[in-house]
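Cont'd.
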Amino acid sequence: MNAVEAASSRSPAGALERMDLAVSGMTCAACARRVERTLSEVEGVQECSVNFATRRASVLFDARTTSVSALAHAVADAGYRAEVPQASTAEETDAAEERGLRRRLAVAVLLGLPVVVLAMSHGALDFTGSTWVQLGLTLPVMAYSGGPIFRAAWAALRHRAADMNVLVALGTGAAFIYSVVATVWPTFMVTGDHGGHGGHGAAPPIYFEAAAAVIAFVLLGRFLESRARTRAGDAIRRLQALAPSIATVLENGVEREVPLAEVRVGDRVVVRPGQSIPVDGSVVDGASSVDESMLTGESLPVEKAAGAEVFAGTMNGTGRLVFRAAKVGSDTALQQIVQVVERAQGTKAPIARLADVVSGVFTPVVLLIAIATFAAWFVLAPEETRLTMALLNAVAVLVIACPCALGLATPAALMVGMGRGAQLGVLVKSAASLEGASRIDTVVLDKTGTLTQGRPAVVRVLTASGMTEDEVLALAAAAESASEHPLARAVVSEASNRGLKVGAPESFTATPGHGVEAQVDGRRVLVGSRRMLDGRGVSGSEDAERVLTADGQTPVLIAVDGRWVGAIGIADPEREEAATVVQSLRSMGLHVVMLTGDHEGPAGRVARALGIDRVFAGVLPSGKAHVVRTLQAEGRRVAMVGDGINDAPALAEADLGVAMGTGTDVARDAAGVALLRSDLRGLPAALGLARTTMRVIRQNLFWAFLYNVLGIPVAAGLLYGLTGWLLSPMLASVAMSLSSVSVLLNSLRLRRLRLPAPQAA
Amino acid sequence: MLDSIEVGVVSGSVLAAAATVLFFFGPRQRTRARSEVGGAQEVDLMVDGGYRPDRIVVRAGVPVKLNVLRTDRSACSEQIVLGDLGVSRTLPTGRVVTIDLPALTPGAYDFTCGMSMLRGRLIAEV
């Protein structure tokens, strides 16, 4: 693939392409406007913008009408130069970067190794001119392999900023320049100063091997680090890549391909089988199954027909869909999720506050310690070795200090943990929420809609003698088929679930609050409450009614031609996963509390069935926040689980608000954690994710601090008086490289987090 | 007693230390945001091993458009975080990322890289 092809956006079938061109020769904003005008006038160019600051022109054009070379010619005619920037996609730049890094590392190792061997031989391999050979071998290591380090250090210093590169550049630079002077003008190094392991004969010691080895180890560390970092950000990159860059829009019956950015709300968008859906909307035509797992973690494809909502980034199955765009650009659920996660990844965890303060002043402080180390060793060491000892120890301080491990400790773990959460349908809104979630000891669950399915269903059918359950249900369903009442719908849906043949009523009268009366197959059917049956003089249902009520169910009574024939018990059934989830919460050491508007009797039965520790019954919706406060007053750290809208005050009051089943409406703000799927198992998963991520952050911070707190004094030679320990710059660089890599590898463990096995439908 | 070389090295070190402190923590040049275009004030921020400018003065009470262009490829600078404003963005190299900030109340708002090593400050003045 050549660079031209590589740089253009890929459009699977269409001819529209977006291309970024690097424009040179522009000296002012007026030049940029001229280039913009020139490009806009080229036939086939639909859109063009030139950014003077970046020297880039972004052009949208029809590849059937014009070409990149035509664009470049047009710009050249106007007196400027336009070319396709090499490797313009992030992946390609990253790949090029990695190749470069690998080459530099290879050079550093190949040329550095003989230098190290020569130096370590303590004269055994010595020959005339050996120092010059070492200089010759080290020079390319410094200039080529270490080039980017020195350039980055210079860039930072120009801003009066200081980073990792400044420390490494100063450390290796000092060792190298000293050794060059010692090689070129040995007499300049006065008074036979030949201590240290590099010294021999009367010549002053040289430390080319330290400079070369440090560069090699720093590059090796960076190589490992870049691989680990790429993996750390994988989750979000994959999410972002889900939406296609081109959409097919239906205009007056004609399909037209447009760039994603041009899809407007209200457009009719066509999605062919196997394509991913470009924007959010609702289906107006066609039917298909759509894989939404990438968005919600839901493993089974969801059937979509007219009226159903579809979401950007999800994958269409085998049918063709036409839908009306409802949310585009950054409003789509996918973009909302990406934004929530990106924002959250950038937030600061309270636990990292100290690390942030330290990172900010780290490099200048290390420079001061290095200067002090140099001065102290120069004064305290014997005169013959003072310069080399001062230099080596100062270099070791510069090289071992690693602000990266400290700086990466929290963000790396957050990035991996939150990214993994998003893949599992668990969105954590900020680092503070994550930290809060890890400290929760009490979970408050709303019964309706959280522990239960949130909609009434038939759970039991009792019959008078002579009738079967199905006969009673079929009659009741026929009578109720025209009613919109939730209880009526529960009866109708149960009949249809059982595959019963339900006739249409010949006549139908509803009495609000009582029930319905209907004529079905010539029979007079009453379906309703005790009051309704009493009013029609029907009796005999009392026992059945008592049985159902005692079980916490709402009884619906049925009479045919003036005779009671059966009773249907309706309740809001518990979610299938409720008992397992309560169990796993308890095994995590959490106190599980249920909150409900029901009376104590039925509420207590549900609680016992599920294994819940404590129940607050008879709570009005407005009283939920009060329950949370009551528990907090007992010294508990409370997580409140709700739907995110009706429960907003309680969610906000709690130490952690968890909104469940938000679906793709992730922007709901009251909750610190949003569970995309309406599946309670996301809750232990979210709390587990929080605990594990925080544990990793604590480990990272501990090691990063410990490493610097121990490493710097040892490198400065503080233990020399007691133990005779000194750290060679080479070992210091190995330790430094390993410290940030170990922090990253520790964070990457979070990628292995799993949800409980997906629920079968 | 210190010999003359040692005295020289110690005094040199003290001077170097003072210079280091002044270099990193001394006063910095401030840059003013461009006047409002369409209701927002604009600032171009370059990221190349550090922030340029790193002291930005904006008018309080007026939304701010921050055009950030990262030109280096160092891992350190790939994120910009405005912690006080709860904003963080990933900065792809070579592409301008526009960050829209709300009207700010007077005060100083620090921005840093993801690891808090590179630092800059947005100063909202009346």
